[in-house]
Amino acid sequence: MFRKLIYLNWSAFLARLTNFQAFLVIGYIIFLLILFSNLLGSALVIVLFDHNPAVISQLPWLTSEIHQLITLIFANVLWILHFSFTSTRLLNMPENRKLLAFGYPVKKLSWHLNLMGFLHPLNLIYNFTWLVFLLIQIKHLMYVPVVLAVVLLNYAIIYSIKHRFLKVIEKRFKLIVFSALFVIFGTIQAIAIISREFEYVVAQYLPGITTLNSYLFYTPGGLLQYTATGEYSLGVASAIYGFTALLIFLIFRDHFLKTREGLLQPIQERKIYKKNQLWHFLKKWLGLHAGKFYYYVLSHSYNRLQLLTIALIPAVYIPLLLQLNNNYYSALLIPTMLAAIPVALLAMGMANMYGYENKEFLLHRQFPSSFERQLKERFLGIIVVPLLIFYLITTAEILYLPQLGSVVGIYIANTFFFACFMLVFIWSSFYYYKKADYTSFSFKHPIISQKVTFMMVFLIFGLGYAVFAPIGNLQIYRLYVMGGLILAISVYLWRNMNVLVRAFDKHILHQVWDDAGQ
């Protein structure tokens, strides 16, 4: 039955796959292979490089304590990466729910969906890397069952924490955002202070290697490593294994119960028309259609998580990039990351323009006002906020980062960057329409298709290199080309807004009818 479930999901995936999507899937597979080889290769090098006499002769400072420190740091970095990239999305939950009507037992379907989540390529890559990293350091064979159980428990805990984090974000969003920004900016300031007086701080406050290692053993990565490298008896190993097995059972039982609850009582689309201040503000300044749509977007819990991500990534990386001595990479990566902020905001509103109040569009077609006017108002309203933030960021670049280029050059490059992604998101809103669902413990539904997200990340860095990479005297010709393309895009969109209506009728209307019938 489990093989049949995998076959059905794989068949449904292939049935929706276009030629361009197949290209993206190939790119994603290549990314996974590169990620897997880098993680596994790094783990092997970190653990085994002190076994090579040639390396030891060239690195006389490499004592056993320092090597242990390096492995502990790597273990914690690996755990952070594992936490960040663990996939908690079960495959095609609404479609799999239909199998209940064909007699698929709800208990088996719940367990099988959780098992399919565990078999996600990213989850397999990180769990397998943990096993290799720990087993090549193992002291005794009796620790092998303990290591296997601890790696599985680590996945279960991360899986559970990430789901509950989504619920906390939804209920305590302002507190989470403030706390995260406080910690990040505090960390950045601490790094800046330490870097000014590095030698004094290291001499006075940094503990010895042995003491530091003892502290790191109590971190998540350190605890995992201790199960393989520590010294404990068979009785202690049995106790750890038994306690770990009990926790694994309880956590996965919780996953099972929540998944079964989600299958039997699916989250209903929430009507969030509340005549609050935000509703009136958006309606007043963006118009009825755009204001209503933005209210849906800003009220959705998943988008709140996206806003937090958009705020945190530049806050962490841009100060670090400013410290780079390599002007080429600074001139390339900083403007790319700054230009990506309004692009990410634009994606939240534009990459799936019709998935929120999708059923209402059946009524919108019967409004006295023309449907083209409704869509035009929505389109123009959606780009207002990202465009305002875009120009604020661009002005800040000119004032505070003059080394990035001239005023005209920065404005043209950023405007071209914005216009290109606007076209990408118009295209994705029609070809990657996705009904906006809501998060629950056992599954989440990103508002933007993962294919679009993957393509967007790829294009941000690809287009960023084409637009922002320093090219010396050829820069003026690149500006002419970008300026001409900006003008052509603007004129085409302004004179052909009726293309939105035709594309809606061709690509969206029949899907809205399907959703309305469910």
UniProtKB/TrEMBL annotation:
The keyword Transmembrane helix applies. Keywords: Membrane, Transmembrane, Transmembrane helix. The chain crosses the membrane at residues 20-49, 69-92, 113-136, 142-161, 173-194, 232-252, 305-322, 328-351, 379-402, 408-432, 452-471, 477-494. It comes from the Bacteria. This is Uncharacterized protein. It comes from Fodinibius halophilus.
